[in-house]
From TrEMBL:
It comes from Raphidocelis subcapitata. Keywords: Cell cycle, Cell division, Cyclin. Belongs to the cyclin family. It comes from the Eukaryota. The keyword Secreted does not apply. Gene3D superfamilies: Cyclin-like. This is Cyclin-A2-like.
């Protein structure tokens, strides 16, 4: 028996997507170089861990030189201007950490993320039969499928990245959207998972709306459309590094991961780079936990100042509010409401005025000791 449409939040089992959206609510609307390099969103590690895995990462930045005896700087408005912490010091003797290759690894990740961006306007220029709300329905359903088959967060992020890139290039009909979604998840599962679900399992989760042969054919179409280029950094790859730079505990780790996945729901996130989404998720999670949202260590390893992620912070915060307040798409909230993930999905979103005031406080110029002007971060 077929389940109810996912827009009505059907329970797990046999799932199919109803793309009739005439009575649906409106779609989501996205609201210097020193010791690090700043990457702007204007120019357009592979991991096996599950949600409860350790936050440590073996991807590391370029080792930097620091004078002996360096100490923390002054505190402005409760936000500390600190010396950059060498978070890789403990990895110096660990060959698995690859500290000597860190600079090349992250230079490559930042370069590639700009080359593999989807077209934020593909629903206007390529997919004439698709709306932002239909995309949100599909993403919400894919989150449920990933949870049902216990797929890691990397697989989910890669799935959405492949899907948006594919839809930016190849026009398909409305009744093929769900098939394209599971084809991208199947390809991402083969890339990220040790044991990927089979074609029959993915077809079963659609209430056998599609046959395994149709899934194989769609996967081939996806791969050709992407020129077989599946290796690209997602926000999750950057998030691990930034959490390590934050010396994150479990609550910060889960909350930032939650916000990073929430951002997937809004098509406006395609206008922001994966590294910016990751940085904004850490910024917002730290603020929600009452911590200083940005510091010198995060600025160094993210290669961004607080002002550089302000627009992305506003987007992630706005999407979080919409998801919680509207209650239409609850898969991510339900997933992170589990006690195993410290129930961070139940965290109250920050009001827009609070976010605006926070960004103004963090990014506003301050008077330096010598009388000149300096930025907080």
């Amino acid at each position: 028996m077929a389940a109810a449409p996912l827009a009505q939040q059907a329970p797990f089992g046999l799932m199919s997507i109803d793309m009739d959206v005439e009575n649906c609510p409106p779609p989501f609307m996205g609201v210097g170089k020193e010791s690090f390099q700043v990457y702007s969103d204007a120019a357009g590690s592979r991991a096996r861990s599950h949600q409860t895995a350790s936050t440590s990462s073996v991807l590391v930045e370029r080792p930097f030189q620091r004078q002996a005896g360096a100490s923390s700087g002054p505190v402005f408005g409760g936000l500390a201007k600190q010396t950059v912490v060498d978070i890789d010091a403990n990895n110096a003797g660990n060959p698995l950490a690859c500290s000597e290759y860190a600079a090349d690894i992250f230079d490559h990740l930042h370069d590639v993320e700009c080359d593999c961006r989807p077209d934020p306007q593909y629903m206007e220029t390529v997919q004439a039969d698709m709306t932002p709300h239909m995309r949100a329905i599909l993403v919400d359903w894919l989150v449920e499928v990933a949870l049902e088959y216990r797929l890691c967060s990397d697989t989910l992020h890669l799935t959405i990245a492949l899907l948006d890139r594919f839809l930016s290039k190849v026009p398909i009909s409305r009744d093929q959207l769900q098939l394209a979604g599971i084809a991208c998840m199947w390809a991402a599962s083969k890339y990220e998972e040790i044991y990927a679900p089979t074609a029959r399992e993915f077809c079963f989760i659609t209430d056998n709306t599609y046959s395994p042969e149709q899934l194989v054919a769609m996967e081939a179409l996806v791969l050709r459309g992407l020129s077989f280029r599946l290796t690209l950094p997602t926000a999750k790859a950057f998030l691990r590094r930034y959490l390590q730079a934050s010396a994150a505990d479990e609550r910060l780790h889960f909350l930032a991961s939650f916000l990073c996945e929430v951002a997937l729901m809004d098509e406006a996130s395609m206008r922001h780079s994966p590294s910016s989404i990751a940085a904004a998720s850490v910024f917002l999670a730290r603020a929600m936990l009452g911590q200083a949202p940005w510091d010198a260590t995060l600025a160094h390893f993210s290669r961004r100042r607080a002002a550089d992620v302000a627009a992305t912070v506003e987007l992630v915060a706005a999407t979080h509010r919409r998801v919680v307040e509207e209650g239409t798409f609850t898969a991510i909230v339900d997933k992170y409401s589990s006690p195993k993930l410290l129930s961070v999905g139940r965290a109250a979103p920050l009001p827009a005025p609070h976010v605006a005031a926070l960004l103004q406080a963090v990014c506003a110029p301050v008077v330096a000791c010598g009388g000149g002007m300096a930025l907080r971060c």
